[in-house]
Amino acid sequence: MSEFEYLRNVTVGQYIPTNSLVHRLDPRTKLLAALFFVLAVTTTRSVLATLVVIGLLMAVTKLARIEVRYVLRGLLPALPFIVALMLMQLLFQGRYSTCAVVLFEWWFVRITPCLVELVILGALRLVAFLFLVSLLTLTTTASHIMHGIESLLAPLQRSGLPVHEFALANIIALRFIPTIAEEMERIAKAQASRGGDFGGEKWYRPDRIARSRLPLLVPLFVNTLRRAEELVTAMEARGYWGRKGRSKFVELRMQQIDWLALLACLALWLLIWRLPWPGLYNFN
Amino acid sequence: MPPVIRIENLHHTYQRESGAVQALRGIDLSIEPGEYVVLVGHNGSGKSTLAKHLNALLLPTQGEVWVKGWNTRERAHLREIRSTVGMVFQQPDNQIVATIVEEDVAFGPENLGLPRAEIRRRVDWSLEQVAMQPFRHRAPHLLSGGQKQRICIAGVLAMQPEVLVLDEATAMLDPQGRKEALDIAWRLNKEQGVTIVAATHFMREAIHADRLIILDEGRIALQGPPRELFQQIDRLRALHLDAPHVSELAQALHRRFPAFPANLLTPQEIADAVIGCCERREEERERQGWGEARRGGNEEEKETPISNLQSSISSSPSLPLSPLLSLHHVAHYYMRGTPLQVKALEDITIEVFPGEIVGLIGHTGSGKSTAIQHFNGLLRAHEGKVTVLGQDLNDPAVDLRTVRRTVGLIFQMPEAQLFEQYVGDDIAYGPRKQGLSREEVRARVQRAMEAVGLPFAEFKDRITFGLSGGQMRRVAIAGVLALEPQVLVLDEPSAGLDPQARRQLMRHILDLRSRGVTLVIISHNMEELAEICDRLYVIADGRTVMAGTPAAIFGAADDLRAIGLDTPDMTQVAEALKAQNLLPADVVVYTLQQAEEAIAALLAQRAAFAASNDAGSDRS
Q1: CA-CA distances (angstroms) from residue B12 to A129, B38, B42, B88, B200?
Q2: Are B335 and A8 within 8 A, CB to CB?
Q3: B354: distance to nearest CA of chain A, Å?
Q4: In a domain, A65, yes or no
Q5: CA B77 – CA B65 distance, rounded (Å)
């Protein structure tokens, strides 16, 4: 309905507190579980198996007491990319297909059943990934995700990787997403109020689209840089000197249910990976 | 006890591309433990720079600063200095680090390397100090500005500082938020003995201070107890500052009635002084019962104080014209159709007639800003009807671009929308988009700039981002004026400006009326609205709850307070007098002149009495 509500369609990064079982899991469990799901999706070449994984994700969504429809709508903005990717594969990948059967051939385009399966699989994998990321952020606060990552990567800190700095930078970035989205919305409205219009340009003129966005982007950058400067001052005033001598407030604890969930996800991955899932065609 | 902060001959010079800027030129200052100090000065007076020296965020170019005996130049003591002097800044949004309230409060103690149990104890304690425990697991971006600032204060308190520096920490807050923040500072000072140093634009905030320090051009121009400084009105004016209205009132009354003390600071003190003056006259008691009589029979007047509000909303002014703009029973939802759906507006009815100045009053979050976005079609009404110049905006055939040219909308902090390098180009953005000829664009830019007091020849080629805050705001307003709208809607036009820039801006805005522009103004500054508006609408919880002339609205001060809104100081003075039955309840007071006249009339009968007492009570 509203052309200015930028926050509304962004499901990624929005936390919905329903205090379900999924919400209460340790963030490390959820991160590792997500990893197993990613492994499951990437190690299988079966469309059916990928569908099973997506089905399971939907079941987890139900378990988290979040509407599947809501998550799916959050994926809509990614649809153009998925379609574009599918088209590219369809146009350019066919030449490398080893499938004997050819459905259609013209100039460099060659479409085979294996290719069709591959394209569908690719799209489903993308959907699965996006769904997974959405689900993770819907059920886990950004700060818990970062604390989880920091804790999982902590061993790398010793080998000189700036894990703490990375986690803090990410928390701050996540913290500012809604602030900056609101600011963007305000700037867009302000420019519209003085006769600016955005969105009238034809999609095949990216140069014009970019130019018309300048009145949005320039103030956004100016203001964000100012914010960054003020934030640094405020952090310094609160005694931040980097990781040295810092203690931690948030405490993460693995419960029995966490280990069970992890085990289940590991089993899922192995099943998806190792079982002889039926595929329509075997492509290489 | 030795001073907690000692400053000797402090100079600070910023190196800018345009050359060196001397922000501080020789400050000598000692702050005692437990003191409440307020720094006042207009923009560029150096108060923020001085504040940043107090915990070594800046180091002196010349001179020394000691915090509890540690020189701020010694890096070895930085940690001690920063945990001794905590600082809260202007923009709460830009100080919060974490995505969860309690984690943000824990950030400081974490930096100090405290054990987890101690951090938890301090987080609990400081959230309690600012009364924000119920919000500890919330995401900060869902809180109001005042709440966010309280979180920032809690974050500093968790480091258990001895000195709390508030660097214009109230400038961006609404009156409610400002009051909350100041109450906390005051309580910390009185109960915990925390030393407070507050830099601010607002003289009113100095009322409770032990010491007021006025900075000008990087030097201390005046310092002393606020009660004394407020009386030097001429010197304050010379520094482009004003004494609070209450103090001005006391002084005006003192000039007329020398027995009346000139050094009063709060509405209650004024009322007490009047009572002290009148109490001995028993006939005053006869006036009792006025209040009750008024309440019942208040229908006879045109300007009716509205106590039961819903019925009065449709009452339009006695103008024979049809409204230029109107919202009728408008409702609006944010995030509609998602689990996060919020009802922003429930039932808003506003009418704006040609040539009027209409004011909108309400808390932050009451829906005012959402409501005005319906005026030019930025938001569409989910229920109800929006009409602009007779066109129904729900009709998809209406060209919104024309509507937006008719109704100019200026947002809060409009300088945040500027994007062109040169002032002239930025203002020309709208007219150019409209496809006007080069000459017409130029003429419009010129007219718009002159309307806001920016001489065309002098400013059109200035770099936009090099202007002062007040100038940038005027450029942004000119950018909308260049569309030559019939109605100009301004959301908090003077927020965050210092009093001087504020006065200047309001004068230009009022001049627009004589150019035939109808104005709608949202403001938290009740004094400002009381003086300039023809009619006011009060909005609370997404509903229009009161409508009428300033006299009608401020006459119903109880209703305003019931919604939790502030009333002008002068109304508070009158209320205090009414409570003692010294003023009849039907006297409506909201400006300085009205208050002066009303109280003068009251005191006039006692002039002889007062004069006879002159020698005894003139302590000022």
Answers
A1: 54, 20, 17, 21, 20
A2: yes
A3: 20
A4: yes
A5: 13
Task: Name which of A190, A217, A231 is nearest B94 (Cβ-Cβ).
Answer: A231
Domain at B5-238: CATH code: 3.40.50.300
Residue A49 lies in a domain: yes
Tell me what ipTM this predicted complex has: 0.81
Give the tokens for residue A91.
């146009």
Residues in a beta bridge with B14: B21
- A14, part of any domain: no
> Cβ of B398 under 8 Å from any chain A Cβ?
no
Which superfamily is assigned to B310-555 in CATH? P-loop containing nucleotide triphosphate hydrolases (3.40.50.300)
Number of domains in chain A: 1
Segment A177-235, tens digit of pLDDT? 888 888 888 888 888 888 877 666 677 777 777 777 888 889 999 899 999 999 999 99
A237 vs B87: CB contact, 8 Å cut-off?
yes
Domain that holds residue A57: 21-274
Q: List, in sequence order, every residue forming a beta bridge with B66; answer none if it has no partner.
A: B6, B71
In-domain check, residue A8: no
For the entire predicted model, the pTM comes to: 0.81
For B303-461, list the strands marked E by DSSP.
325-334, 342-352, 357-361, 383-388, 391-392, 407-410
CB atoms A215 and B419 under 8 Å: yes
CB neighbours (10 Å) of residue B347? 19
Best of A198, A238, A253 to disrupt the B interface by mutation (most B CBs within 10 Å)? A238
* Domain residue limits, chain B: 5-238, 245-296+584-617, 310-555
